[in-house]
Amino acid sequence: MGHESPLYSLDLFGHEMIFDLSSMLMLTVTAAIVFLIAMLFTRNLSVRPHGKQNFIEWIFDFTRGIINSNMAWNKGGRFHFLAVTLLLFIFVANMLGLPFAIINGHTLWWKSPTADPTVTLTLSTLMVLLTHFYGVKMRGTGNYLKSFAQPVWFMVLFKIIEEFSSTLTLGLRLYGNIFAGEVLLGLLATLGTAGAAGMLGAAIPTLIWQGFSIFVGSIQAYIFVMLSMVYMSHKVSDDH
User: Fold this and answer.
1) Residue 181: helix, strand or coil by DSSP?
2) Residue among 232, 220, 223 at smallest CA distance from 130
3) Which of 123, 139, 207, 233 has the fewest CB atoms inside 10 Å of its own CB, making it the most exposed?
4) 9: helix, coil or strand?
5) How far is residue 7's CA from residue 238's CA, in Å, rounded to a whole number?
6) Interhelix angle 195-236/80-95, nearest 10 degrees
């Protein structure tokens, strides 16, 4: 353990910006895989789903259920593709670090991008900002701003705090679960290099933990989408 991230610094207008090349690489890989899934599983669509089309139909039905459990479809339907994209993107991102890791010297290149708090907090921040955007767009600026002062004006402070806490919990929950899983896999991999006895002792726990990590990664993708739709429903619905 104790591997370093490949960092690149750039001086922009007198301010130093630092980029994690590993996270950027893995986000690109994740986006490419999701694009390939979308392209391959939606080719030659038919009225009666069959074969690989059943998978993508199930994803759309699953996310439709998430949306319907939080808001009316006449409002929530516009977020259907967003929910599908989020679910696929986060699930794939969670899975990338499970089969293996690529380490060059002490630099970790291949990992789950969601094991980086910068990535997960960026995702959660974008989602919260998007809920505000649609809240203004669908309810109007005046009605939306008034909702922050209901039922009494001093609720504004609590609702602002709630926005920050929602952003932090949404991002850190995802990061914590994925990062912890990869840390334990790394420890088991280290044990596996300690001779034949270590390899035999680490083999079964590694397989079990990888299976559990797949389950955790799937659940975390679901939770992220579910909470995103909950936050969205609070912003776009007049009864919240």
Assistant:
1) helix
2) 232
3) 207
4) strand
5) 45
6) 160
